[in-house]
Amino acid sequence: MERLEVHGFRNLADTQLRPHPHLNVVTGPNGAGKTSLLEAIYFLSRVRSFRTRQNDRLIGWGAEEARVVAVRGHDRLGAARTPGHTRLRLNGADAHTRSALAARLPVQLMNTEHQRLLLDGPRVRRQFLDWGTFHLEPDYRELAQRYQHALRQRNAALRVGDRRSEQAWTPVLIRCAAAVDVARQRFIEALRPIWSEFARQWLGLESLELRYYRGAAAELPWERVLDEQLERDRTAGFTHRGPHRADLILSRDRIPAADALSRGQQKLLVVALLIAEVKLWSRQGLTPVLLIDDLPAELDPAHLHTVLDTVTGDPTQVFLTAIDGAALPTDLPPGQWYQVCEGRVSAMV
Ligand SMILES: Nc1ncnc2c1ncn2[C@@H]1O[C@H](COP(=O)(O)OP(=O)(O)OP(=O)(O)O)[C@@H](O)[C@H]1O
To answer: Per DSSP, which regions of the chain are E strands?
Structure first.
């Protein structure tokens, strides 16, 4: 982003910034508004927050709307939230799909909760998988939506015992499942070597694995999978197997990473995954924005340095928050530093 404007967003005063193309360091005391600034950028891309499911919370107290605008290359992106309603703008016109802005502004967030990627249920890993695949294959989003639609229709038919509808939707589901699966596998195959290199270097371990579980036994065609499950699906009233049950398995010597690694090692493993994804996007010609919120509190200076080193020189634009700039490695690459104080963001010279 060459320009970023934030209006009426959380506690932030109206702000206009000209961010550095590579590194932006945002410092300030607790409650100053550092996370809110990252949240504004995230909202512009993903049309949601990483802190709340209720976008109305983003509207500053006393403000009528929260609005974020960015200029990036030839594109001008905007997202505004008024109570109950989000409006997206792209190059002077309304944008009607949620992914229109994300396609032009891929963001990756790293914060103190990133370990959830390892410890939570498969849903959060499927989201990681879906965003990663979407940025490599822009048609993927529509494909995944078609799969979800077919799944809902088939499940509805299974629930009420409507055999005709079930038989009509099953082949559609099979076609979409195969295509979703192939796209995700391509993403994982591209991601794995980058991830494993980082994971090996940072953890000093050789036997780490990243596997894609496709939501069914690997060797069977989807037609067979659904056929074998048919009676079970009919009895339960839903589809048991498919890409909606996919997962990413991280392990060491076949033992789940959550059991086989220390907390610190788990953090590094997840950071390796997030950074590998950013790296992959930038190798594909995208310019990702990496939001790192309070990571100095989570990673020791040496590892933080390594992480920043890894993305320096890429087209990646980093926003990094810290309460105290002194906690950051001393030899950070050149960038723009900002001080946030009671919602006012000022560039430091
Ligand atoms: N909708 C809102 N309007 C105005 N202020 C808000 C709104 N929502 C939250 N706040 C306030 O905004 C302040 C900034 O919070 P934020 O999390 O951005 O700070 P921070 O600098 O990241 O702090 P920390 O270092 O403690 O994480 C908080 O004091 C919070 O109470």
So the answer is: 3-7, 15-17, 23-27, 66-72, 75-82, 85-90, 93-94, 107-110, 208-213, 247-252, 255-256, 289-292, 317-322, 336-341, 344-347
Q: Which atom of ligand 1 sits closest to the CA of residue 39?
A: 18
Q: Report the alpha-carbon distance of residue 42 to residue 47 in Å, rounded.
A: 7
Domain that holds residue 21: 1-106+287-349
Rounded percentage of the chain residues whose pLDDT exceeds 90: 83
SS3 70: strand
Is residue 339 in some structural domain? Answer: yes
Residue 81: CB within 6 Å of ligand 1? no
**Residue 35 placed within a domain:** yes
Average pLDDT over every residue of 121-145: 95
CA-to-CA distance for 242 and 222, rounded, in angstroms?
Answer: 8
Atom of ligand 1 nearest to the CA of 323: 25
Report the pLDDT value the prediction gives residue 26, as an integer from 0 to 100.
96
Residue 35 near ligand 1, beta carbon < 6 Å: yes
Expressed in angstroms and rounded, the spacing between residue 17 Cα and the centre of ligand 1 is 19
Tell the residue number behind the tokens 């967003």, with chain if given. Answer: 9
Q: Supply the pLDDT for residue 323.
A: 92
CATH number of the domain at 295, please. Answer: 3.40.50.300
Residue 37 lies in a domain: yes
**Which percentage of the chain shows pLDDT scores above 70?**
100
Q: Which two tokens stand for residue 286?
A: 């995208």
36 CB near ligand 1 (under 6 Å): yes
Cβ(341) to ligand 1 under 6 A?
no
Whose C-alpha lies nearest to ligand 1, atom 29?
31
> What pLDDT score does 340 carry?
98
ipTM of the complex: 0.98
Say if ligand 1 is within 6 A of residue 54 CB. no
Does 83 sit in the ligand 1 pocket, CB within 6 Å?
Answer: no
Return the structure tokens found at 173: 């589901």
How many domains, in total, are found in the chain? 1
Burial class (CB in 10 A: 0-12, 13-18, 19+), 205: middle
**Binding-site residues from annotation for ATP:** 28-35
CA of 11 to the centre of ligand 1 (A): 6
